[in-house]
Automatic annotation (TrEMBL):
Protein name: Aggrecan core protein
Pfam family, one: Lectin_C
Keywords from the UniProt entry: Disulfide bond
Highest taxon above the source species: Eukaryota
PROSITE patterns: C_TYPE_LECTIN_1, C_TYPE_LECTIN_2
Domain C-type lectin: 4-86, 94-206
Coiled coil: none
Keyword Disulfide bond carried by entry: yes
Length: 214
């Protein structure tokens, strides 16, 4: 966040490359929970996936997860779904948001108004959460697809120095999972978006202490 604040205060914050790139390979599936402190353990979560899931089907990667209706299904993050937010304190713990958003928008909404998207295997398996899912399916049973986002995503981005991406600052209105857009850049609000790596843009260098715009 300190580096983001430095970039935001810079004279050049729009459409400038930063050292973040998508590996975007179908056989790499590093799943993470949006909720900090929760760790994805494959042996615990295996039974939750639907048949043949996750399959990362199609030309564009499926890096976000929906419940359909009780099993998990990987889906393209730009798809719009209703979603459930989690409250760390207070009651009720779960809020069904009756508005369709893409996954990043849903995450941003939950973090602004609650704690985060519902996440973690204990929450997903809790009776209270299952009641919410049943209520959702009952309410929207007339729809062709009654799926909801949960806070599980596949991390495909890596810093150019090889470090893992633990801090994420994506613009919720950007589509960052398009197969052709595998390099990250800044936006006017200081957040990140992505574009085709062969495009020429200003860029930031890092000398170990300070960012320099070029």
């Amino acid at each position: 966040m300190r580096d983001v604040e430095r970039l935001t205060n810079s004279s050049q914050t729009t459409d400038a490359w930063i050292g973040l790139r998508s590996i975007n390979e179908k056989n790499i599936k590093e799943w993470r929970w949006s909720l900090p402190g929760e760790k994805y353990i494959p042996t615990e979560c295996g039974p939750e996936w639907g048949p043949d899931e996750p399959n990362n089907y199609g030309a564009n990667p499926e890096n976000c997860v929906e419940i359909n209706p009780q099993k998990w299904n990987d889906k393209r993050c730009e798809k719009k779904r209703k979603f459930i937010c989690y409250n760390e304190t207070g009651q009720p713990k779960y809020f069904l948001i009756d508005e369709s958003k893409n996954w990043l928008q849903a995450q941003s909404y939950c973090r602004e108004h609650h704690t985060d998207l519902v996440g973690g295997i204990k929450q997903i398996r809790s009776e209270k959460f299952k009641e919410w899912v049943k209520e959702f399916n009952k309410r929207y049973q007339w729809m062709f697809s009654s799926n909801i986002w949960i806070g599980l995503f596949r991390e495909i981005w890596s810093w150019s120095d090889g470090k893992n991406v633990y801090f994420r600052n994506w613009d919720p209105d950007s589509f960052v999972d398009e197969a052709s857009k595998t390099c990250a850049m800044t936006t006017p609000n200081g957040k990140w978006s992505s574009d085709t790596c062969t495009k020429e843009k200003p860029f930031y260098c890092y000398d170990g202490e300070f960012w320099k715009s070029l």
